[in-house]
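Please supply some protein, with fold tokens.
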Amino acid sequence: IFAKTDNSLYIESSSENKPFGEFICPSTGKPCSCGESKFHNCESSSCAVFGERWPVSYSEINGSFYNEKELIFPPELLLRNNLPLKLHGFGGINWFRPLKLKHLLDLKSNYPEAKLIVGNTEVGIEINFKNARYPILISVTHVPELNVLSIKENGLEIGSSVRLSKLQEFLKKVIAERDKSETSSCRAINDQLKWFAGKQVKNAASVGGNICTASPISDLNPLWMAASAVFQIVDSKGKIRTVLAKDFFLGYRKVDLAQGEILLSILLPWNKYCEFVKEFKQSHRREDDIALVNAGMRVHL
């Protein structure tokens, strides 16, 4: 829910109608357990007491009572259980959101031509500007196996649905904690992500979506190849095969994925001692522009 049905929570008189000592949480619109004081914040940094007598009403909230200026995410939405979804759209379009890998593989088996989407940054452009038509869309944002980000003995495992901004944060953490000689590939990918589209796009777009689009102007695909990344691919029966990044791209927007197969994850191996990976991108603008030239380079001395 995005709004309350009780209008009294939003008006000036709401605080006057409440019994003395009852404090109203601006986030939930319900009495909270904050103690009486001139100024008090509960754990959510959203419950504030103004003065010694009256709780803060919605009309009085202008941000000055918050330690953090950003309002908290609505607790009701955080506590909601995720459910598998099937929606029917205009023109016979069906939109699915499975929660389990098995259900995703079953859908892909039943609808081999279905488009998998995360941030819709590519498919949305094709539909809106290139008149593409995809009757079956499958959102893979809530499949746990596709959102893995873990440190393995031989490298990093990156789920195909991981958002680019989340990957960037993870790489920064790994670079800070691991030995410098191991993380040359991590640094190159992190540096390339600085100039990859805008922040809003990186917050939505996924690693796997960028890979499987197989765009000739992809900023990351040359780096996956240079870094000897390994792609894990799973079929409709759950069988996993691996393919090197350099062998995955077959041609212009063509990849080594059979019908019913999906990209599960990427293994980015640690670098050897005296092995260096470097990114390069030349474009008209430094930020948020498509590349004139992209390169990924690896040198082992």
